[in-house]
Amino acid sequence: MDKTIITIAAGQKLYVEYACNLALSFLYWNKNTTINFLLITDLPEFIPETIKERIQILSVDSHDIELGFSSKLSLHKFLNTGENLFIDADCLIYGNLLPVFEAFKIQTVSAIGHVVKEGINMAFVDDICKTIKQLEVSYFPVICGSVYYFNTEQKVSLNEFFTFAHKVRVDYESLGLIKLRNKENEEPIIALSMAKFNFMPIIDNGSLKADRMFYDFNVKNILSGATRLYNKALPPIPVYNQLSEARPLIIHYNSRFTEFYEYESDVKRLKMVMLQHYSLSYTNLFVYLMIELPQKIKFKLAYILKENFRPLYRRLFGFRKVEQSKRI
Q: Where are the beta strands (DSSP E) in the chain?
């Protein structure tokens, strides 16, 4: 069965840059497989030629695809025949993805997560028990929607699935769903649609995908495929993740983690090896000395200064303004 990785980069050049980084990580680890890579974008002019010639590009008009979270609700228009694995553009791939397809293969629509039947102000739902009763479903999949699986060859029509998802979106607030950045979030919409058609999530064991914000520490190197995300104490967001450690094939650098050196360092490694053809040993040494070591020293000093001088700073200057994310 044909296998395709799909990602969307629409609305901002920044998302195209993320998607190209994702594509490079895919090509590094999956160049000897038959898996396809499809990048859907309304800004194809920002894709470097060195990447364009190695992947499939689907150029769409800005009116044909919604921006933000809702873009994932249009995926049925672009799915290839066979198995499709949607991966958010702000992810990087750390190994061969065939085990991910293998884990999902008996599903029609799925994601990584777990099932609950109740919960208050949880997973972008005011009251899960009340919402699932409204929709006459028996459970709610708690998912972080950075990775979705769609199989076009299973019996249930994906058009029916997405039609129901759009109905949920229309009734978003009346169903007690909570917005993210003042927009409808696709996660509870797809979760409820999965429940409507009795689709189950894949239980998270830390081997397939990990979301960076659910772990306190991250040790990895994209050139070796070594990944370790871990928590020394309780997981920071136990509603979504209760693992103390993950060694995933896909890392989702959600929230602001794409702005930190840990993402920048692996992107630099990819570009040096794949586009500039430096050796692995030289690349690793360069990245450590020029990016990782200076940033680690900077963060350590900043932590010491903040812990010792934060009260004085606030008395003199007040609270610092929260910086706006580049994604908004």
A: 3-9, 36-41, 56-59, 83-87, 91-93, 109-116, 120-122, 125-127, 140-151, 202-203, 209-211, 217-221, 226-230, 245-246, 250-252
What DSSP character marks residue 134? H
Q: What is the pLDDT of residues 220-278, one digit of tens each?
A: 999 999 999 999 988 888 889 989 999 999 999 998 899 999 999 999 999 999 999 99
Inform me whether the pLDDT recorded for 324 exceeds 90: no
Rounded Cα distance between 202 and 209, Å, is: 11
Q: Is the pLDDT of residue 175 over 90?
A: yes
- Rounded Cα distance between 229 and 217, Å, is 6
Per-residue exposure over 255-294, b if at least 16 CB sit within 10 Å of its own CB, e if not: eebbeebbbbbbbbbbbbbbeeebeeeebbeebeeebbee
181-211 pLDDT, tens per residue? Answer: 888 999 999 999 999 999 999 999 999 999 9
pLDDT digits (tens, 9 = 90+) for 107-146: 999 999 999 999 999 999 999 999 999 999 999 999 998 9
Whether 93 contacts 147, CB under 8 Å = no
306's enclosing H/E stretch is helix 293-317
Kind of pairing between the strands at 109-116 and 140-151: antiparallel
User: Are 2 and 82 within 8 A, CB to CB?
Assistant: yes
